[in-house]
Amino acid sequence: MRIGLFQTYLGRHEQPVYPLGLAFIGSVLHHHQREVLCRDLNIYQSPLQELEATIKSFQPEMIGLSLRNIDTTQSRDLYYYYLYFQEQIRKIKKIAPDIPLVVGGSGFSLYADQIMRDNPELDFGIYREGEETMQELSVKINTPQAVVGLYYRQNQTVCFTGSRPVLDLATLPPLKWDLFSLAAYKEVPGALGVETKRGCSLQCDYCTYPFLDGRNIRKHPVAHIMSSLEDLVFNHGFSRFTFTDSIFNIPQDHAHRYQCLVLFLNL
């Protein structure tokens, strides 16, 4: 199966951020022998033209679209990315009306049911962590009711198969960084993030991370993180990156371990 994964264009040009969530999903699909093409529409001068050209040339059998943010959440610069997300799903369905369109991402998961109901162009929605759900959907596209963690439509009614248990991060294959064009992120401070764990045990009222990733902290195996860092430094020439963990220094021994790894790499 050919699968096209797209990071939604924000609607205006901002500092690019490497689509880490889509990269994890793309790595899983690649590991399971899917033909995967990934595009971050935010790094192109003409994002919607790139979207159309990519779909027409690659001819995917499934299209995945990631909605990372609904808006800026900043009163001095309140801007709704969601409006441009809606524009893009309509454009995709106009270009490829018969291709299954799947949406996921943190922005989607926060309002999953409402987004599915308000946008009939969406065939499927992936709730919270998407690595296992997307891989299963690529196998069971004709029986979506058998895929846990999925929104789908049955007789124009939005259905949900229920929440999937949190993912064991040790089961993930190595992250394939070059699924996206890395050159666009190399010289931008903070554009490329490395994840060492998921989940947050704090209870801050304003924060959505415990909802999205769970309250129990799950760590990536040290060997996996070391491999990712070595790949970035020695194979792709990165000398700086950002740790994307919700709270980096909890637990402290975990944070200290990765500080030592960075020193080992002479960064």
Automatic annotation (TrEMBL):
Keywords: Iron, Iron-sulfur, Metal-binding, S-adenosyl-L-methionine. It comes from the Bacteria. InterPro entries: BchE-like, Cobalamin-bd, Cobalamin-bd_sf, rSAM, rSAM_sf, Znf_C2H2_type. Residues 1-148 form the B12-binding domain. Its cofactor is [4Fe-4S] cluster. This is B12-binding domain-containing radical SAM protein.
